[in-house]
Amino acid sequence: MTRAPSKNLPLPPLNAVRAFEAAARRSSFKEAAVELGVTHGAISRQVRLLEDWLGRPTLFRRLSHGVMLTAEGAALFAEIGPALEQIAAAAVRHGQPAKTSATMLRVNALATFSLRWLMPKLTLLREAHPEIDLRLTTGNEPIDALAGDYDLVIRGGPDTFHGFEAYHLLPERRLPVCSPELTATLPLDCVEDLERHTLIDVGSMPRLWRDWLVMADHGTLVPASTLTLDHFYLAIQAAINGMGVAMGPATLIEDDLRLERLIAPFPTLSLPARSYFAYVPVTSPVRTASLSVCRWIAAFDKGSSVASSPDQLPPASPQPRH
User: In Å, how far are 68, 170, 243, 280, 301 from 250, measured between CA atoms?
Assistant: First the structure.
């Protein structure tokens, strides 16, 4: 027999209750955010919403390593926790539980790496790891200047950042590239021929062409003209469009070279460059998923030997844990 409610009781916002319960159970807004598939800021806002609804009691005390319930928060959690467990149990008894959702992995990667290497292979990654829900954002700022929490950050390296482990992904080198159509009208048979071409510069790396020319024993060469663009991906696209000769990151343009959208007129003359590294927070609750993606990317390095287990993927040496 169904019991009718004795009166219409007001309910607090249920999303705020869920956020509060997860943060209280884990003593961490960050871990609660991972569990619920939202951002750290969303948890904070939901907790403030619940505090406002209750008349502004302070439910948590913020600590350097997480959060701790206040007396008011502990009293509320003591009643809300069992209530939510009872609701979940009732749902299991009277219906089909939802399937376990994929692990959300928040990735921040260099813009050119994302556009020229990762995005074209994203379907392959999803097929290889359907259990991972990858959320990709791009950025070039240093890790310690990132706004927001990420489970995996892809930058150059090796570098050491407090609280992160570093893993080598792919090597890199830089060399001149251009469209095949460009050399059909202006041949590039030797380095001296660059005097008749437009050299495409990257604004953030103004010495890149000069360093290559010095390495090629032509440090005094003066090109017909120059074109300066802000990012590598713009310089690469300009070269594909036949606007000049760019210094291309070899790893990121492998597909362009294979499909002959670009050619490398001097393939044996290349500048060494920083490799691509993954930086994983040592306290990440989704570390296994992060390392699975690291292994998947590193497998594309034709000269690498990739471990069979995520936990066997070696950190960069030396890379101490902090």
Answer: 49, 11, 19, 25, 12
pLDDT tens digits, one per residue of 249-288:
999 999 899 989 999 999 999 999 999 999 999 888 899 9
| Contact criterion met (CB below 8 Å) for 310 and 288 | yes
Domains 14-69 and 173-272 share a fold: no
* pLDDT digits 0-9 by tens, 141-192: 888 888 778 899 999 999 988 889 999 999 999 999 999 999 999 999 999 9
pLDDT at 114 over 50: yes
pLDDT at 310 over 60: no
CATH architecture of 103-172+274-300: 3-Layer(aba) Sandwich (3.40)
Q: HEC string of 155-198?
A: EEECCCCCCEEEEEEECCEEEEEECHHHHHHCCCCCHHHHHHCE
* Weakest mean pLDDT among 55-64, 205-214, 231-240, 308-317: 308-317
CA dist., res. 217 & res. 291, Å (int): 42
CB of 214 within 8 A of CB of 234? no
CATH class of 14-69: mainly alpha
CATH architecture of 173-272: 3-Layer(aba) Sandwich (3.40)
Alpha carbons within 13 angstroms on the beta-carbon side of residue 109 total: 22
Residue ranges of the domains in the chain? Answer: 14-69, 103-172+274-300, 173-272
Beta strand residue intervals within the chain, DSSP E: 60-63, 66-69, 103-109, 132-138, 152-157, 164-170, 173-177, 198-202, 225-229, 245-249, 271-272, 275-281
